[in-house]
Structure formats: structure tokens, C-alpha cells
Amino acid sequence: MTQTLKIDFVSDVVCPWCVVGLGGLEAALETLKAEGITAEITVRPFELNPQMAPEGENVGEHVARKYGSTPEQSAGARQMIHDRAAEVGFTMNTGPDSRIWNTFDSHRLLHWAAPGSRPGVTAARAMADQKALKRELFDAHFTRGLNLTDPEVLADAAAAAGLDRDEALAVLAEGRYAEAVRTEEALWVSRGINSVPAVVVEGKYLISGGQPVEVFEQALRKIAGEVAAAAG
Hints:
Helix 1 (16-32) crosses helix 9 (213-231). By secondary structure, the protein is of the alpha+beta class. The strands form 2 sheets. It has a 4-stranded mixed beta sheet with strand order 2-1-5-6. It starts with a strand and ends with a helix. The chain has helices spanning 16-32, 59-67, 71-87, 104-113, 123-143, 151-160, 165-173, 178-190, 213-231, and strands at 3-11, 37-45, 57-58, 99-100, 198-201, 205-208. The protein has a single domain (3-231), classed as 3-Layer(aba) Sandwich (Glutaredoxin). Strand 5 (198-201) and strand 6 (205-208) form a beta hairpin.
């Protein structure tokens, strides 16, 4: 018998550990299919830098200012993250001269792709579209170094994910879902989420950080057992 877990993946588009976390989570779920454990994943918004200016900031300067890291420390951390991303099949090309961007518009597009926002689109299709868009946005930022505040870049990501490019541009131009995104961001903060990725299972179990695949497997297997036991 198949058991389907509801998962909220709270994350930001410019969070490198979120790339690792989503890749690890999906790889774990692929393995757990053989045990009858599946999941419905909805991407939820979180902004690491909500006050970031539209022109963005040099990532080296940003990390030094925010965390006090030296260039050498930043380079070491960056290489570690690149290696972890490669383990889940993702290529990161970031360097000391890369830029970090305001991601509010990215989250508005992700909200548009989510279940309930597009009439006639099933929840299953919307979740698949949303994850595809998330991956395209990760690719635009971390692999290709594109400007995530540029509507054309965001619309291209939507099109690459199989979504309507013209509608994506309209969403961005008209400011759609701004209030909904802010409300949802505040909701997750009110629930104690202050770092990402945060993998919230069944609304009450939390797996924090970009964990290795095997950690996700063990945690999800344990949670599935507890949920099944509680259901009788």
C-alpha cells in the first residue's frame, strides 16, 4: 500500500543549500518508492535578503558583510557546496564575483505556478510545474549567473519549465500575488522557520538543512512509520 506524505519545502531561490536540499529530498523519495512511500511537495517562499536592492550585490561582499567571512573562508565554503550540489546532479558555477539578487519576483512566479492559482490545472500538475520552475530558477542563478530581477530572465525560466511565458510576464508586470507571498512568508516565520531549506512534513515534522540523501531517507521512513501508526 502506498503512503503519501505532504511536504512543504520552504526555501529561497538564491540559497545554495536549498539546491542541495531539494536534490537530496527528491533522490531519497525516489529510493523510498520501493517501500511504498511517496510525497506531494509544495514549494513555499522564504527570502534570505528581503531588503536586497534590485541591482543586487556582489556575493563576496555580501557574505563578508553578513557573516564576517574572509575570502578564503568563502572560497572553501563555496567549493564544499559546489561538491554537494554535484552529488545531486546540479552544476554550480558561482564564484567571488557572482551576484546575489532580490528574489521577491521569483517567489511571485512560484506562487502563480502553485496549486490553486491557475484555474483548470490539477494540484498534481501544479506541484510538478512549480518544482520544474524552482529548478529552472536555481539553474538561472547558480549555473548561468543570470539576473533574477530581470522579468525576461524569469519569464524564460517559466517557459523552460513548461509554463506560459506571456502569462508569466503579465504576472510580473501586474504585481500579482505580492500580498499572498508576503502573507505566506510571515506564516512560516511565525511557525519558527528562520533558516532554509526547511522541509516540513505533514505540517509538524521538520527536517532542517541540505541533508545528505541517506539522512532524508531515514527521517522520512521514520516519519512515515509514525504517521501510519497514528492513523491506526
